[in-house]
Amino acid sequence: MKISVCMIVRNESAQLSYALESIPEEYEKVVVDTGSTDDTVRIAESLGARVFHYAWNDDFAAARNESISHATGDYILILDADEWLAEDAGGQMEQFVREHPNEPGIVSIWNQIDGEVHRTQMVRFFPNAPQFQFHGIVHEQLYNGSEPATSLPSNIGIIHMGYQKDIYVAQKKEERYLKLYRKQLEQDPNNGYLLYQIGKLHYSLQRYAEASEYLSLCVDLREENRLYYPPMLVMYGYALKNLNRSAEAETLLTPFLTLYPSFPDLPFLLGLLAMDTMKVQDIERHFLRALEIGETSQYATVAGVGSFKAAYNVGLFYELTGQADKARTAYEIASSYDYLPAVNRLSQLTRGPFIKR
């Protein structure tokens, strides 16, 4: 089985080598350059990529389709210049093809955002067949003919660093994306996934009021079965929390606990909101529910909300309410993940009195 890794790039000399070097040597590397003025093309060629040139026309799907048109492999993996393949990605791709031949796969993309590890999910791995094409001028999505491609979960992992605020500012990605968002919204004003991505951009830049405006529109569309919807709800909840609207977030999110019973991010956030609104009776049960669910591979998530972060927060609750043994047990669970705040609290418990309100 031959795999083609397809990329579209422009002025990515600072990070392209890391992406290309993460690709196994036996894979085909297809790079479509949309007008670089730096060393991007030279770097790509020096690392064994087949480089093609394409005039940028403000349409990511068109550029993406140009890249896959040059692929000669049996399967295609989409990779961006600010991403790296996880060490076991090659083996996971082969396993996915053995178990689900001729099916597109959902790839986990791990993002480092403000010191936290977030996992998003996107359809990035699919058979090299003419019916699979991308649609959408920005945040393009894979289609099978005229319909969005159905897909199955995989264990393929990608590490992404492009959502850091300083990277957006340095590369002027904000202006570029907002221009394309406005253009696509004119064509498709009720595109929930696009509205989510706009809200996500504002949120990553800590513009919570703007983020909440777009995310509230997503909520109203009620696309509960779409892949983006559960993480969108959580992001909206955090935006409201940052705007000191925790009670509103609580009211909004609580009904979704039954709709997404395996999504630990929801009860974890509700635990934080209960701390804000002083609903003491809800704090413990929400964090314990997140721990009961555990870490999830079903949804986009933040690492730790089903394990060490939930244990640490319920430990704080126990410590504040004078439940020493329970606090120690919770901190021990969180410390087993080498979570430094829990390690510090556990050490403090052995030396001195509890935290006081």
UniProtKB/TrEMBL annotation:
Residues 4-125 form the Glycosyltransferase 2-like domain. It comes from the Bacteria. InterPro entries: Glyco_trans_2-like (IPR001173), Nucleotide-diphossugar_trans (IPR029044), TPR-like_helical_dom_sf (IPR011990), TPR_rpt (IPR019734). Pfam families: Glycos_transf_2 (PF00535), TPR_8 (PF13181). One of its GO terms (molecular function) is transferase activity. Keywords: Transferase. CDD domains: Beta4Glucosyltransferase. This is Glycosyltransferase. It comes from Cohnella zeiphila. The lineage of its organism: Bacteria, Bacillati, Bacillota, Bacilli, Bacillales.
